[in-house]
Structure formats: structure tokens, C-alpha cells
Amino acid sequence: MIGIVIVSHSKQLALGVRELAAQMVQGQVPIAVAAGIEDPENPLGTDPIQVYEAIASVFSDDGVLVLMDLGSALLSAEMAIEFLPEAQQEKVYLCEAPLVEGAIAAVVAAAAGRDIHQVMAEARGALLAKATQLGVVSRPLSVVTPITTNIESPTPEIRLIVSNRLGLHARPAAQFVATAARFQSQILVQNLTRNTELVRGNSINQVTTLGVRQGHELLITATGSDADQALSALQALFANNFGEDNVALNSPPAFHHEVAPATHGELSGIAASPGVAIAPVVHYQPTHIAIKEYHVDDPDAEWQRLQAAINIARQEIQAVFSQASLQIGDAEAAIFDAQLLFLEDPVLLEVAHQRILENHINAEAAWQAVVDEVATSYRALEDSYLQERVDDVVDVGRRVLRLLAGNAAANLHLESPAILVATDLTPSDTAGLDPTKVLGICTTSGSATSHSAIIARTLGIPAVLGVDAQVLQLADGTLMALDGESGRAWVEPESEILDLLAAKQSAWQTAQQEARAKAHQPAITRDGRQVSVFANIGSINDVQVAVASGAEGVGLLRTEFLYLDRTSAPTEEEQLLVYQAIAKVLDNRPLIIRTLDVGGDKPLSYLRVGFPEANPFLGWRGIRFCLDHPELFKTQLRAILRASVGHQIKIMLPMIATVTEVRAAKVILGEVQAELNQSGIAFDTAMKVGIMVEVPSAVAIADQLAAEVDFFSIGTNDLTQYVMASDRTNPRVANLVDALHPAVLRMLQQTVQAAHAAGISVGLCGELAADTLATPILLGLGLDELSVNPQSIPGVKQAIARFCIVESEAIAASALQQDSAEHVRKLISSSITPPA
């Protein structure tokens, strides 16, 4: 298998690129990273020895492709090759392809079994290859060969009705494009409702400017060897609503405090983000970049200059995305995923390239012209929501122009808290605001559904948009008050207005504090039953979000992230450091570590199965895999045991189907404990061992298994597909994979009863735990613990507090007697009385 090496000045960036690329091929391709330097004060840089070690770690006779960012990365890579034996040097290729999309294209090609030259060609053509026979974003961009179809042979197609409340806006469009790009087939999309032309499914601007709204019908065709798989994957996105629900985006709670009618100095605008702010104003004006078109003698050099600026812009947006994920959550930060796809759009880049080469004009002029044309195409759409996506186009366009001009990023540093006054704010501007310094936002343009408004709501910054332009004439320091709920602002407000707003502000702050406090309080039913609410995590970053969200512990640490996307298993020391770091963040809260759950559908590239598995979900995975690799298993157990000192760590075994498996695993655990004792290495001798109940056989013999372990945790994702004999990744049977089906609920009941009869606790860590519609059933069945994704914790705790056990037991008993998941849902909906 061809190896890929990513060389970058930034370790964080390189790890992000590796993670993104690895996800595209599910860890099938070995990818190594050589990034950053060991200097805490100045960690940016590259080290030739690191590059050499990275190449060596993924070296294969099939070849190694090295992708680099700018500057010393190239020199370090060249120097690293000199350290290799001459025979190996010939098989290492330095590639000038852009880092992010080059890596993605390379791993996809490598996973498909292409040779090193084909992989390198794919990486180099990552920005342009998807432009083949591509439709046009707007008429001025029609420089690419138009789409043609072969009418002689039937083309696989699907027709779908879009159910997302806001249609294919930026985030769903980004998911659609990313999914389409995973397949070799050419994917075309047409909005039948709007009678648009066919466009390519791997262009973010092409897909977005189809103007797809809720209720629209799409025709999606695929031509190629994996057409059926591509259509199935896309259909699954729609079936799952792209992971979104259909409630309003960040809809603020309504307040009923009335402010006096219009008074002197009052400005009316759009209520964009609730809350009250009273502070001096500070004006914000982004640096204007004047663009002049001029003739260039070397268009190739100019194109290289534009590509370099785009690469740096991509790195900057990735950094914004990473920071935004921590600050506002992954869902809202996905806005910047769409911006990254904009920079990869093949139509956009092809047209910019052609303008420079044919017209011999400078990069700034070519880029500005193309961005203006795309922005115009968005403004021409009938749909007002999609029209507002022009903000993202302008945001990305301005970033690249700033880099071409050599200007540093404009950072807003406020000495004291203030209300920000501006013509408008881009999503990047807003995501970078400090809510402790920016108390409010007042702009002369924008809307409540713009990405900037969504981010402001998520950050909790009150905002009034679209006010009269006279606000731009105010001197800095002028006192302003604004009410983000009513959409009004006051310049130098009178004392009566200040008193009313101060009262409303106090009420708002009290409500916010109570909401945050409740998330960190225990989840207790109305009749006093406490249910633990833990988090499912898969990284160190996840645990920080979990604790901030009110997690009382970690109910499932997926350790696979330590094993995937590398060429050898993690060492004991590597694992120990990670487990200790996570336990430290938890500060003595419980931490349940699931042992390695790979194999079958999640293979490790460095451990060959030796034969393909026809049914990987029924194959060599979980505990079966670990018992067949005792040294690998022992290494993980040693690391977990060593990390247990001073922490509440528990071990959980996945995919248990028989008592024999549990006993075999406990024998190996005993051997490891004996070895540690003999070496004088401390560990928690009373550490509890539990199992995942996710196989029907485990439910059937739950009483026997309960006698062997200290706790159960039900994995409803796998259990449901096994009970219903339906692959949850297959859209044709996806409707059967519903954890609220009475057959699955009866499995839960049987498991809980067996656990409690044996005196052990039982939790649930599948997606069902986060579904608040299911909360009364789970309470009624007697679950002791629910473990959910960190973002769901506050909502689950609130749901638990709305019910009493007697009421929940009645709902659960009735649900068990229903004949379908649909009837269970109707039962719950009709049984729940809305809170007063």
C-alpha cells in the first residue's frame, strides 16, 4: 500500500489534515505526519529528522507520496530523502499538490489501488479534476466543458424530497459534496422543482446555487463503477436529515418584559440575537483592499502566487474552524467547512486559472472577478436564505485578497467591554469575538438567519442588525443600549429606558445562569430518582467539551482513535499519557474505557486479516479480535491499569457474545495484573470490569454474564441492527434500524432486569440515550446511567427532570406492548404533558 506523509509547519494543521484524509478512506491508507518543532515558545517549523522518520514509518515498495506546505517544509523534505538508502530514495515522491485536497485525493486514489504515479496525478489534479464536464455556477463562468450524458445506456438515479427546514444550506451542502467526492462515479444533481440544469455533485457552489429548499425534489444520477453505492450513501444523508432536526436554528426563548414605545434616540432593526447590552460603542471597519488589474509577463508564477494564498487561507480557516468547534460547537462551526469547500471548488479555480493564463492579468484581479461572479450568482437566487450565503463567499474572497496583498489579519482587541458597531460582520469576524469584551453587536446590514447571526446567538452576544446608517456616524465611546430580542437600540438612552433594560438584562442573565447551572447539577426525576448522565467521547478534546457541558463522567471512551490512521499499534506509553490526560480533565469523575473495538468493518492496516469478510459486522471484531491478538490486548490493558492509580477508571469489553469470551479476557487481565505486581508497578486493584451488551446472545444469557462482571452498558446502535437483522449503513433497510422498536425495547428490559437481579448497574451508551423522546421509556425500564454525546447532556438532564418514575414505568410498559416503532413514538407523544 502506498504511504502518505504530510509535512507542515503546524502540527495541529497536519493532524487535522490527516484526520480528514483518513476519514475519507476509513483508515485504509497509512498516513504519517511530520509537523512542528519541539520548541514550546515557537512550535511552528519543520524538522528533517521528523520527516525522515515519518517516511520510514510508512515506507512501502509501492511508494511514498510526500505533501508539504510552504517554506522550510520543502527543504526539510528534500533533506530527509537524503538520509534514506539510495534504493528507497527512488520510491519517495515530493508532490507540490495543495495540502488538504491533495491529501484527500491521494488517499482516495491509494485506497483504490492505483500506483504511485496515478496517486500523484490525482493529488496534483485535486483542484481541477472534478471540473471535467462540470456545469456552471453562473453564466460568466461557463468556461468548462458542459455536462453530457449517454442516452443510450440507462443511468442509475434516485429522486428525493428534501426535508431539511432550510434545505441544502451550507452545512448540508458541504456534507453532500464531501460524500459525493468519496466515489469514483460522476454524480450529477438537478433541482426538479426549480427546473435547473444538471450540475456536478462535488462542487460546493454548484450544489448550493441549485437553491434547494425544504420540499424541493432532486434528481441525483451517478455514472461509474460505484454508482449504486454512491447513490445509497447520498440517500442515507437525506434519510437522516443530514443530522439536523427541523426546529428553528438557535431559536431564542421568548421574554415578556416590555420596553417603552419609541423614544428619542431609538433605532429600529432586526432582532438577531437575544439579550440586553449597555456599553460604549466601538466602530469596526475591516481593512479595505484596493484591487488594480495589471499585465503580468509570467502567468504561471502568478497562478502559483494565487495557489499559495489559497493554501494559507485554507490553513487560517481550518484554525478558525478548530477554535470555533471548541467555542460554539461542531454543528455551528461546520459553517467553516463550507468555506473550505469554496476554496476547493473546481469551477472557481479553473476559471481563475484560465483568466490568469489567457489574459495575463494579476492574481488579485482574477480572483476578485471570479469571487464577484459567484457572489452575483448567489444574489440572483430567488431564495432569501440562500442569498445570504454571499456573506461566506465575500468572507473567503476577502481573506485570499488580504493574503495576496501581504496584509496581516485584522484582530479586534478591545481594552474594555463595548458594543461593536459596523456595516456588517463576516462569519470569521463574528467567530473571533470575545463575549466578555464584545457585549453587543449593532450593524447596518445583515439578517437573523445569516451565519454571523447564528454564531452571535451561539456565543450569547445580543445583536440588532439592519439599523439606520446614521449609527456609523456615532463617536467611539458614545453610550448605547440594545435589546436583541425586540430589535431596538438606543443612543444615549434616557434613565427610564436604562432602568427597564437593566431589569430585563438582569432577568436574562439570571435565566442564562440557571440554565448553565442546571447542566452541571445532577439529573433527578420529579420523584427523586437520580440518573447519571455521562458522555461518549473519542478524544482529549471531547472530554473538555463534555466537562464544560455538565458530564458527570465518561460512559464510553472509544479508544480506536489511538489505533487508526497509523502504521503501527500505539505503544503502552503513548496510551498511558492519553488515558492519564483524559482522567485528569475528569478530575476524579468516572471514566469507562472501552478496549479496542476494531476488525471487521474497522480494519487496522498494519494487521492484515488475510481474507475479505463478506459480513464484517458479523465478523472478526471487538473482543474476538483482541483475544486473537493477546499482545496487542495486553499492551492496552497495561496502559489502562497504570493510568488507574488515583482515578475512577473502569474497563469495558466490547462485542461480548459468550461467557467464555469474558472469562478469557479476565484471564489475560489477571496475567497483566500479575506482571505489574511483579514489577512493582502500582494500579487500582479494585478496578471494575464491565461489558458492552450489543449482541442478542448477550441479552439471552445476561443473567450468566452478570455473574462475571461489575456492570453492563447497552450499545443500542449495534444491538438494534442485530436484533432487526438490518445493516444500519444500508439505506434500503435503514427504516428497520429503529431502537424504539418494541423488539429492541424488550431486549433492554431483559438486560436491565438481569443486571439488577445480580446487583450490578446498567447504562446505555447508544444514540437512543440522546433521544429525549425516549427518555421516559429509558427511565421506566430502570436504566441507571445514560451516556450521550457532550452536546446532548443539558437537554437529556432537562428531560429527566420532567418525569417521575411511576409515570415513566407506565409509558414503558405500554411501549413494550406496541407493534411498531412508529406506534411507540405516537404513544410517547400522546402520553407526555407539556410542562407548564
Number of distinct beta strands: 25
Radius of gyration from CA coordinates: 28 Å
Structural class: alpha/beta
Largest sheet: 8 strands, mixed
Our count of helices gives: 32
Spans of at least 5 consecutive residues with low confidence: 128-152, 247-263
- Any idea what the shape is? globular
Distance from N terminus to C terminus (CA atoms, Å) equals 62 Å
Question: Please, what is the average pLDDT?
Answer: 83
- Residue fraction in strands: 5-15%
Strand order of the largest sheet: 9-16-15-11-12-13-14-10
Helix content: 40-55%
Gist?
The protein has 836 residues and is of the alpha/beta class. The chain is globular, with a radius of gyration of 28 Å.
Explain what you see.
- The chain is an alpha/beta fold and 836 residues long.
- The chain is 43% helix and 14% strand.
- The protein is built from 32 helices and 25 strands.
- Strands 9-16-15-11-12-13-14-10 form an eight-stranded mixed β-sheet. Strands 18-19-20-21-22-23-24-25 form an eight-stranded parallel β-barrel, surrounded by five helices. A four-stranded parallel β-sheet has the order 2-1-3-4, sandwiched between helices.
- A hairpin with a 5-residue loop joins strand 17 (523-524) and strand 18.
- Helix 7 (170-180) packs across helix 12, helix 19 (495-519) packs across helix 30 and helix 20 runs parallel beside helix 21.
- The termini are far apart.
- Residues 128-152 and 247-263 have low confidence and may be disordered.
Topology at a glance:
Elements: E1 3-8, H1 11-25, E2 31-35, H2 48-58, E3 64-68, H3 72-83, H4 86-89, E4 92-95, H5 99-111, H6 116-124, E5 157-161, H7 170-180, E6 186-191, E7 199-200, H8 204-208, E8 217-223, H9 227-239, E9 266-268, E10 270-273, E11 276-283, H10 299-328, H11 330-333, H12 335-344, H13 346-359, H14 363-379, H15 384-387, H16 390-404, E12 418-422, H17 427-431, E13 438-443, H18 451-459, E14 463-465, E15 479-483, E16 488-491, H19 495-519, E17 523-524, E18 530-537, H20 540-548, E19 554-558, H21 572-586, E20 591-594, H22 623-628, H23 630-643, E21 649-653, H24 659-678, E22 689-693, H25 696-700, H26 702-706, E23 711-714, H27 716-723, H28 742-757, E24 761-764, H29 775-781, E25 785-788, H30 793-801, H31 805-816, H32 821-831
Parallel strand pairs: 1-2, 1-3, 3-4, 11-12, 12-13, 13-14, 18-19, 18-25, 19-20, 20-21, 21-22, 22-23, 23-24, 24-25
Antiparallel strand pairs: 5-8, 6-7, 6-8, 9-16, 10-14, 11-15, 15-16, 17-18
Helix pairs in contact: 1-5, 2-3, 5-6, 7-9, 7-12, 10-12, 10-13, 10-16, 12-16, 13-14, 14-16, 19-30, 20-21, 21-23, 23-24, 29-31, 31-32
